[in-house]
Amino acid sequence: MIPKDADHQNPAKYRPITCLQTIYKLLTACIAELLHQHIAKNNILAEEQKGCRKSSQGFKEQLIIDSVAMKQAISNRKNISTMYIDYRKAFDSVPHSWLLYILQHYKIHPQIIHFLKNSMQHWKTTLKTIGTSCIETPEIPIRRGIFQGDALSPLWFCLALNPLSQMLNKTNHGYSIINPHKHTTLTHLMYMDDTKLYSNITQSLHRLADITQSFSNDIHMEFGIDKCKTFSVKNGKINRNSYSLISGDTIEPLEPLAAYKYLGFQQARQIHQKETKESLKKKFKHRLNSIFRSQLNSRNMSKAINSYAIPILTYSFGVINWTQGDLIDLQRIINTTLTAHRKHHPRSCVQRMTLSRSDGGRGIIDVLNLHNKQIKCLRQYFYQRSEHSPLHEIVTLADKRFTPLNLADRNTQRNERITEVKEKIASWQQKSLHGRHYHDLQQPHVDKKASNAWLRHGELFPETEAFMLAIQDQVIDTRNFQRHIIRAPNLRTDTCRHCHSSPENIQHITSACRALAQTDYKHRHDQVASIIHQHLALKFKFIQKITPYYKYKPDIILENNNHRIYWDRTIITDKTIHFNRPDITMYDKNNKTTYLIDIAIPNTHNIQSTIAEKLTKYQDLAIELKRQWKAEAIHIVPLVISSTGVIPKSLQRTLDILQVPQHTLYTLQKAVILNTCRLTRKFLTTSSVTSANTIT
Hints:
Strand content: 5-15%
Pfam families: RVT_1
InterPro entries: DNA/RNA_pol_sf, RT_dom
Domain Reverse transcriptase: 1-251
Organism: Parnassius mnemosyne (clouded apollo)
Radius of gyration: 35 Å
GO biological process, one term: DNA biosynthetic process
Number of helices: 25
């Protein structure tokens, strides 16, 4: 039982959802597909019913038609009378006899009818309450109603109500949507059981209501009187009139200042735009805050925003008139809320927020683009339907800015414009600070796909991901940034607060400060090297299982009958060699092959020169070891990855030489990024600013 609203004490406020066996759901889904094909082929389902109709726009289609009808009547001071019909326990009320009859009436295959008839005889359920004590009822046979929980039931229910649409359309009553050259009569709109009746005058509306009431009584469905309302406008003024049922109950008119929630939106003369926007924004912010208070990793946080928060807004696109400014504000709400929760740096590149993770972004949906795509899709749908449906044709002609679609104007609308990925990347590229990382990724020696692997995996905390993006965007609050970008008036020098020898920019902090060389840089370097060492140790059976790299402590010497591995050990040679201490030295005794492995984590612009330096640096040692160890081959293996996680194309080939698993590349990158973030935070929080450097 799922509660419909906050009133959890009222049993009537619960919606029963049947927990069915998976095999039954699969079977009924197959049957539903056959029914869909039969219905489409024979044009059975009424145009006014949009529930369970494939290739339709569902409730949005109904709300757009409703908006055109209501706004045309109001703007032209025409009379219009409407009635909202709500059924009490609609799914639970339809008799099984009627459900079977409707299948026969629409000539569904006899085998399907036979199966469903036999199946219905075995429909049973149990109710179970869980609390301080568990109460479970015996099996209760289901003699009326239909399941809510499989693919067939909603379509079957729409078929059961379909004769009502045909009966209403055969009358001469309804509301005339008029165009100078054409007109059509709208009697009703339905979405599942939510029904709205339309007419030009009250008497005709009552006639349509009589037909609806008579049909409903015949199939033993009851109106939910408290949710049924009438609304009429006569000569531009609200005309209050009620409708009396055969049972003696009365459908009351909507109060002058009240609104009716129809298909999820509050409306009277028209949808309440301002109130709806405020309500949606409030729900949107609430869901964003719920997501950001969770412990989701970065990728799942982006997915949660896209699938849990943004759909609150998507529901209204095409129905509510969102301006471009409104949509930009909604996107800004995402950014500012992320910033408030420390998951986005306020100066980071905003274009990267809505770029895909494979392109170097965070993969959050662009709200403006999403809105405009939906507008474009809805406009195309109505134009296509207008070629076959008189109702859609007249609605298209009549919609003169009555809805956000403005269907009467077939020219491309401003709210149809889509900002392409290329435009966002171009904006990112053109920025003097933010664009530097993009240019780094475009270098011919850089593996762009591998460099963005950490974003694609999205396993870091959102705070860490945001901080690394800020480092890549070069907007970290360094002295250089404060003095030359922000132009802080109280800062006299941009010299590094630790080494006092170079300008303190982000490149200096991440990989060029002499004061950090033997501490933070070495710690980062050793963690990356330990990943390689551990994989080699596992491969050659020195260890039995992988442990987290930050817990792994390499042994200085590992040796067995086939291999020998040195960790950060000076290689003794007959001849004096200045560079004789690779990070890892591995000797394959069987193949008489030696690997001199050296790790470096430079700034991105130094990747190529660092690789060349490593290859040159150990040439003398390689020559000497080949003679001294009688090795048949010596491989100098430089493992270079930038301090911001940028990976050269040569790194994968280097790892292939060592025959370590492919996923090692991502582990190396992750270790570098985490350590770079750690040392940058530490650097910025341990200041050695003296009074001579600041104005007091």
